[in-house]
Amino acid sequence: MLTTPRRLPATGPPARAGSRRPRAPAAPAMPPVPVTLRLPVIRRALRNAVTRVVPVVLAVLAVPAVLAPVPAARADDVRDSQREVLRTLDLPAAWRISEGRGVTVAVLDSGVDRDHRDLTGSVIEGKDFTVGANPPGVSPLRLHGTYMASLIAGHGHGPGGADGVIGVAPRARVLSVRVILEDEEPGFREFNTAERYENVVARGIRHAVDRGADVINMSISKELATREERSAIRYAISKGVVLVAAAGNEGAEEPDASGYAPYSYPAAFPGVVSVAATDRGLRRASFSNRNPSVLVAAPGVDILGAGPGDEYWVGRGTSQATALVSGVAALIKARYPRMSPVLVVQAITAGATRRPTGGYDTGTGFGVVNATRALAAAARISRHTLTAEGAGGAGGHDPARPLGLAVEPVRVVHRDRDRITLYGGVAVAAGLGAVVSLIALAVFVGRTRSSEIFEEPVPDPITAPWP
Questions:
Q1: Which one is predicted more confidently, 397 or 323?
Q2: Predicted pLDDT at 77
Q3: Is 80 exceeded by the pLDDT of residue 49?
Q4: Of 113, 102, 126, which is closest to residue 208 (Cα–Cα)?
Q5: 366, 373 in Cβ contact below 8 A?
Q6: Which residue among 76, 98, 116, 144 is the active-site one?
Q7: Which of 150, 319, 384, 414 is catalytic?
């Protein structure tokens, strides 16, 4: 029986409040989590931003492949610990439709261990935008990034890939783009103070797009936005790239004057899928940020993933939930490679389960992501088109209302100008006939010139919230 190890002190200060430097969302407080595993070997203590976790090395068992439509009768301890998440996302059924083949997911993070046995052959090395922060000869820790990459595209190992971590999109590729340092790296202080690292996220997004990413996972957060980041997000969306980011782990703290947890960037930018975390009961996890940027939720408690050196870690946070949603986006893009980001996000939202009363709340957005239902929604949506010029439609539908819903006004809510300095977009709602009564992409954004709540019509055809 293992319990959570004590976290080692950081070698540098944490990112300051209001910092523009990206970081993995701060680890939420977590009581000791007992984990029963064969041959446990604790390798080292917690690294920054991987929510408090337990690294282990596990015995390898020869078992049937779990990628088959029928789940394997036996599996190693790692795969067994994933069963609950796999069922929640309905992945065994989704894998009959798509496994993410041909899709590249960029992981903007602390780096990925391409030699981990559950990721070998799937990782492409992108650019390191933190070069110069660490002293010469110091290797990146790559813990948080490896963890996220395994949740997205881990393919397991052993006969039939039945052992180890299986990701949501096990046939996808990972493009590793390093944009953060973990707090135990000696260059952490330099990274958080030097001006040259000011816009690493924006540069990382553009690099990922230019390297062919279809989805960009950003299990990172910071408190201030920059124009360069918003421009990079606009660029990515214009190239057909889906962006997914963590809503943040400050939900257990006192709310701000608006009554909500602080907004986290890049998740709060228009056009980015902001992901909250749920607990094992699929309720909003106590640490998960609650504010109007949240679009959907996914499991974020007791999530097992891979770490450097063939280790495995258990943790919690909106980082993990974000990686799972990025994997679902990859499944959709693999099946429908020409589907635009706005329609991919509509499919994810339409397929959500556990919808809140009233259809939306600021804790879990429009519900908990379900991969099979998202793929089914994508199949329906793929028969329609949605363009800024109004061209498209299918089966005689009015292209101005390609998904069957009349244009309605959308409420835009003012935000604290100290938190948000950029203008943004509005929301989208579209029906999917008798099967799904409503899709809503609600991205409430700040206005720096008005403190009044007002209404404005959605453009016809619907194009918001994409910048």
A1: 323
A2: 86
A3: no
A4: 126
A5: no
A6: 144
A7: 319
CA dihedral sign of residues 314, 319, 324, 326 = negative
The candidate with the shortest Cα–Cα distance to 269, out of 299, 228, 238, is 228
- What is the C-alpha to C-alpha distance for residues 26 and 223, in angstroms, rounded to an integer? 12
For 77-117, the DSSP string reads HHHHHHHHHHHHTTHHHHTTT---TT-EEEEEES---TTST
Whether 174 shows a pLDDT value over 70: the answer reads: yes
**Residue 20's pLDDT band (cuts 50, 70, 90):** low
| Domain ranges, ordered by start, for the chain | 77-399
Tokens of 438: 């409503």
- The contacts of residue 193 (CB under 8 Å, 6+ apart) are none
Give the Cα separation of 439 and 402 in Å (integer): 13
Q: Which of 109, 118, 163, 214 is catalytic?
A: 109
Report the alpha-carbon distance of residue 169 to residue 184 in Å, rounded: 30
pLDDT of residue 8: 27
**Concatenated DSSP letters of 337-368:** TT--HHHHHHHHHHT-BSPPTTS-BTTTBT-B
**Residues in CB range of 467: below 8 A, 6 or more apart:** 230, 233, 234, 237, 269, 270, 271, 424, 425
Q: Considering only CA atoms, which of 171, 169, 189, 172 is closest in space to residue 181?
A: 189
H or E stretch at 13: none
Residue 56: per-residue pLDDT? 30
Phi first, then psi: what are they for 347, rounded to 5°?
-65, -45
Distance CA 24, CA 48 (A): 8
CATH architecture under which domain 77-399 falls: 3-Layer(aba) Sandwich (3.40)
Q: Specify whether 144 is catalytic.
A: yes
Query: 173-178 and 454-457 as β-strands: parallel, antiparallel, unpaired?
Result: unpaired
Torsion angle of alpha carbons 343, 280, 116, 48, nearest 10°? Answer: 100
Contact 6, 54 (CB under 8 A): no
Give residue for tokens 């050196």: 309
Residue 285 contacts by C-beta under 8 Å, 6 or more apart in sequence?
Answer: 28, 251, 276, 277, 278, 279, 300, 301, 316
Does the active-site annotation cover 207?
no
Any residues with CB less than 8 A from the CB of 351 and at least 6 apart, and which?
A: 369, 370, 371, 372, 373, 374, 375, 376, 377
Question: What letter does residue 151 receive in the DSSP assignment?
Answer: H
